[in-house]
Amino acid sequence: MIHSNAGIISFMLLTFLILIRICTGQNKDSSPIRLAVLAPGDETLPFALHKVVPAVLYAVQTLARQGGRRMEVLHRDTECSSTYGPLHAFELYNSGLADVLLGPLCPYVLAPVARYSSVWELPILTAAGQNDNFDFKEPHYRLLTRMNGSYSQIGMIFLQVLKKFNWEVVALLFHNFEDRTIGNSDCYFTLGAVYTALGRKSFYKDFDETSKTINYEEMLKEVSQNARGRQPFLCLLVCYVLNCMEQ
């Protein structure tokens, strides 16, 4: 879950400009840097366009007052769609309208666009992409810069916690969408990295928190039976604890 996307996007922009200055020095080129923001238009999302774009514009105006290189900002509504999001990226690339992409912020849009960017030589800066699939820069994600780290770091933290307390038997309980046409939840991706760190051997159980038919008592009994080892304890990694549940 991304909690403060406006500030994160501003930080992304500042970081990109610092990198440009480091790499190019006193670049005399007067042509503007074209920044393309790819984000969903759905105002209910914490990283909607109307929340992200003002932060980018504010950062651009601030840097302009400081004498920075001229920049232009445009944006496209990805609709959080793995179809329409990449189509907008293609349009930007074919039209030569973007020098750098800010976003996408939805994982199912980011994955294909990040792969295309390596071919296009078009860098991507995003506050998303914590899925551990993006940890492998080569060959597909070499121009992807993630400002929020990776869920695999959470996996490493849990390994240290388990080692500290001598815990060996773990069950994973997390929210995921029953309707698979909308993809997987943030909880799925978060605990997916934990599952990988644990050696892909742990018992796991997913449930849709919006379902009216879930028998929580039976579900917890099932999980408890698979999380008990020789030690008299139950270790549950629940996505609520990780605070990645949709608000």
Automatic annotation (TrEMBL):
Keywords: Membrane, Receptor, Transmembrane, Transmembrane helix
A Pfam family per the record: ANF_receptor
GO cellular component, one term: membrane
GO biological process, one term: signal transduction
GO terms of molecular function: peptide hormone binding; signaling receptor activity
Transmembrane regions listed in the UniProt entry: 6-24
Lineage, top ranks: Eukaryota, Metazoa, Ecdysozoa, Arthropoda, Chelicerata
Domain of life assignment: Eukaryota
Subcellular locations according to the entry: Membrane
Matches recorded under InterPro entries: ANF_lig-bd_rcpt, ANP_Clearance_Receptor, Peripla_BP_I
SUPFAM superfamilies recorded: Periplasmic binding protein-like I
Domain Receptor ligand binding region: 54-185
Protein name in UniProt: Atrial natriuretic peptide receptor 3
Coiled coil feature spans: none
